[in-house]
Amino acid sequence: MRIVFISDLHSNIYAVEALDKELKNKSYDYIYCLGDIVGYGANPKEVVDWVIENVDFSLRGNHDTLISNAEPIDMHNPYVLKAAYYNMEVLEDRHKDYLRSLPKDFENDSMVLTHDEPCIPGSMEYITKIKEAYDTFSAFRQSLCFYGHTHLPGIFEKENNEVFYKRDNKIFLKEGNKYLINPGSVGQPRDKDPRLSYIIFDSENNVVEFYRAEYDVEKAARDILNAGLPTIFANRLFRGV
To answer: Do residues 41 and 224 make contact, with C-beta atoms less than 8 angstroms apart?
Structure first.
């Protein structure tokens, strides 16, 4: 089975359209989204509609929670809140109902899915360092955890009692090891590469492949500015930070 994992679309329809075009040339069985469908960007309706029509399973990220008023959440950054209020005004009730309906995490016998981290899904904690990953591995019994939130593509691997970080384009997973796998961000990459990021997990061959694709950053930034959203959300798209 081949699963496309995406995360952090953040109302960026131009990145999503480029992703859609990319996937037409890829072989896969399902698309899973790890949350933060909305927020930051200027085109939440179009992005939510794409997810509803194309994604087989999605989680609810912290921005989705805030914007859909799914439950109380502690987010106070004034720039984030300004973008959230814009997204709230633009989205229709059906979009918010959809976002509210999404779970914060999922697990089966082989994998865990979460937006932020599996210890307490919804905590908004980041896993970006070896120490953070090491502490997190004890939170799940399965060999695989797919997560988003950081906007940074990469894999933490635990072998015996050591943890390693990998950024190779193609990574073969070893039986008996544990993994924290992040596909990066479609709508707002932060690894100094402005191209959208996603992965395909091949469960039969036990391999994860990372992909990048160009999209029209200028149009995405223009829409953000035209909507009166904070300039920082437009500028960072060009630099991937």
So the answer is: yes
Amino acid at 180: L
The answer to whether the beta carbons of residues 115 and 104 sit under 8 Å apart is yes
Task: Look up the CATH architecture of domain 2-239.
Answer: 4-Layer Sandwich (3.60)
Q: Are the CB atoms for 10 and 62 separated by under 8 Å?
A: no
Mean pLDDT for back-to-back runs of 10 residues, the chain (241 residues): 98 98 96 98 98 98 97 93 97 98 96 95 92 95 97 97 95 96 98 98 97 98 98 97 90
Q: Global pTM?
A: 0.96
Rounded to 5 degrees, φ, ψ at 96 are -65, -40
What per-residue confidence (pLDDT) applies to 23?
A: 97
With 0-12 / 13-18 / 19 or more C-beta atoms within 10 angstroms meaning exposed / middle / buried, residue 170 is exposed
Q: Which amino acid, residue 165?
A: Y
For the chain, domain boundaries: 2-239
How does DSSP classify residue 173? P
CA distances from 159 to 59, 165, 217, 220 (A): 28, 11, 39, 41
Taking alpha carbons only, the member of 116, 3, 126, 144 closest to residue 60 is: 116
The one-letter amino acid at 29: D
Q: CA-CA distance, 121 to 232, in Å (whole number)?
A: 28
